[in-house]
Structure formats: C-alpha cells, structure tokens
Amino acid sequence: MSIPMKRDPKTDHLLTPENSALILIDYQPGLIEGTHSISRDNLLNNVVAMAKVGKMYDMPIVLSTIAVNAGYQQDTVADVRDVLVGVDAVDRDVVNAWEQAEFRAAVEATGRKKLIMAALWTEVCLMYPALDLLKEGYEVYALSDVSGGTTVDAHNRGMERLIQAGAVPVTWEAVMAELGRLKGGYDMAQFIQIMNEHLPKSIPGPLAWAR
C-alpha cells in the first residue's frame, strides 16, 4: 500500500503554482514576423496555452515588451493580451530585460526563485536575461516550444547555451502537468479544456488520464 508523500508546495523542488512565476517577453507582431524556427500558428498556439496555464493556476506573471513607448514596435499581440487581462506589460528601452529597472522590480516582486520563461527571440531576449538570472541565483525553466528564434539554428544554439549555463529546458504541456500534479487550486475542467484546445489532435493519451 503506497503512502502519499507530504509535499509543501512552497518549498517543493518541483514546479508548483506557489513557488514559480511565469515570464513572457516580446510577443509582439514585428518579432513574431521575424521568428522562423517555429511556425507562427504553432508559436501563437503555444504562448496562448502557456498564458492560460499561468492564469488558471493564479501564478505571478511578468509580461514585457520592447520599444512600444518609443513607437518602434507594436504592443503584445491581441491573442495573448486577451488571456492576460489585468497584466500590464513592462515596456523596455534595452534589449536585456534584466537591465531594465522596472522589469527587475517586477520579477523581484513575485517573490519566486523558480522562473518559467519564454521570449522572442530565444538567442537574444530569452538568453540574455536568463543568463543574468541564473547568475543571481534564480532557477530558470526555459520554454523551448513557446520561444522562437530568427532561424532554427539560432533557436537551437540559444537553448544549448542556456542549458550549458544551468537552465532547464521544458515545454508548456509538461509544465502544466507538473504545476497541477498536487491537484489543488485549479479547475480540472479548465485543465482538460486547455489540452483539448492546444495539444495536437494526434495526441489522445493525456486526455484519457486527465478525465
């Protein structure tokens, strides 16, 4: 007979909604247009799914844009903004988000050391702040299928460099399952709905165990 482990969601070594924060950087039309390591449809599907996951678990979410206030770039795409109602983007005038005081303050305000991160582009706006965050003692979980690079090679080399520096490569559906494994604080029907809407239709397995 198995004895359930007692796990504190705040101190658990695995990801939980109580010990993690979600960071999404630069999901803007111009940067999506310049992403070529993943199709636009897949990219939007995955980032919207991850945004829904963050909202479902009521996680701290940091959203950032670049050069919107300066007039060079458009705001976060509507598909993402429609999910993240109430989450104001931190606009930047520097490439490395960690060098923007307002972004740093937003991350620190979450009180979390486990950061689930995705950005456009992988080799620039994900890698630079992630490397700084790792150096400052944060745990970085880099969402490989929610991020994208200017080329497949650029994305892959960016992910490899992050992994070598200590970041953990993850995918959105794996993160959703890990966050929900303690089965509390979220609606299972919503969990299943996210899978039905965003997982490839050729993957029936997760739907069976989620029921």
Task: Give the gist of this structure.
This protein is of the alpha/beta class. The protein contains nine helices and six strands; from the N terminus they run βααβαβαβαβαβααα.
Q: Domain count, please report it.
A: 1
Secondary-structure element string: EHHEHEHEHEHEHHH
Low-confidence stretches: 206-211
User: Quick one: CATH superfamily?
Assistant: Isochorismatase-like
Walk across the major sheet and give the strand order.
Answer: 3-2-1-4-5-6
**Beta-strand content estimate:** 5-15%
Average pLDDT reading: 93
Helix content: 40-55%
Indicate the radius of gyration in whole angstroms.
17 Å
Report, as a whole number of angstroms, the end-to-end distance: 24 Å
What name does CATH use for the topology? Answer: Rossmann fold
Shape: globular
Put simply, the count of helices is 9
Structure description:
This protein is an alpha/beta fold and 211 residues long. The protein has a single domain, classed as 3-Layer(aba) Sandwich (Rossmann fold), CATH 3.40.50.850. Helix content is 44%, strand content 14%. Strand 4, helix 5 and strand 5 form a beta-alpha-beta unit. Helix 2 runs antiparallel to helix 8. The protein is globular.
